[in-house]
User: What shape does this take?
Amino acid sequence: MRLEDAKKDHYRKLAKEQGYRSRSAFKLIELNQKYNLIKSNDNILDFGAAPGGWLQVASKLVMPKGKVIGVDLLPIKPINDNVTIFQGDIRDEKVVNNILNEIGRKVDVILSDIAPNISGIWKIDHNNQIDLTRLIINRFPDLLEKNGGCLLKAFDGPMLKPLENELRKNFTNVKLIKPKVSRNASSELYIACRNFR
Ligand SMILES: C[S@@+](CC[C@H](N)C(=O)[O-])C[C@H]1O[C@@H](n2cnc3c(N)ncnc32)[C@H](O)[C@@H]1O
Assistant: This one.
């Protein structure tokens, strides 16, 4: 077995043992330990949330009073009393407007682990993933509290630098990182941002 597959298997097993719905849960645990983005009593919005590993992690981190909202194209099974789930395509403006109406306030942290269907053609996948991430960023003024933070998945490639530059204009602190759980060969990385201006 290749080292990469062995690593994937290890985290899949660990997720099962610890009751997480995806091995992605360990990415959020690791990145939050590093950047301390999600705190007790925060309100969180998670884009591309199915099957719900990040929602499970965030739900625990924001206790006792924080709330978590998750949205995905796919259905997500209920998680906890402090988690609200929306199903829809975030490319449809109405889906995000609907979430905004329901929550009636801005959130402290925005998460996105969003990934389009993978075609296997790197350039297309990179473009599609960055387009989705940009849609989310464009709604930050409506969705994110001043001084809020975000953690965003991004596929590496030529469109990443302009996206990073835009984030640097809007946040005082921006870091790019590849968590241990991500496969080395994948072009996936995460952008952690603090203090939305
Ligand atoms: C890597 S998975 C997220 C895993 C999740 N963070 C977890 O811990 O379980 C990426 C998700 O993005 C969702 N997605 C992709 N395009 C979307 C869109 N246009 N609107 C909403 N969700 C989308 C996919 O359905 C998929 O569930």
Residues 21-22, 24-25, 48-54, 72-74, 89-91, 113-116, 132 surround S-adenosylmethionine (CB under 6 Å).
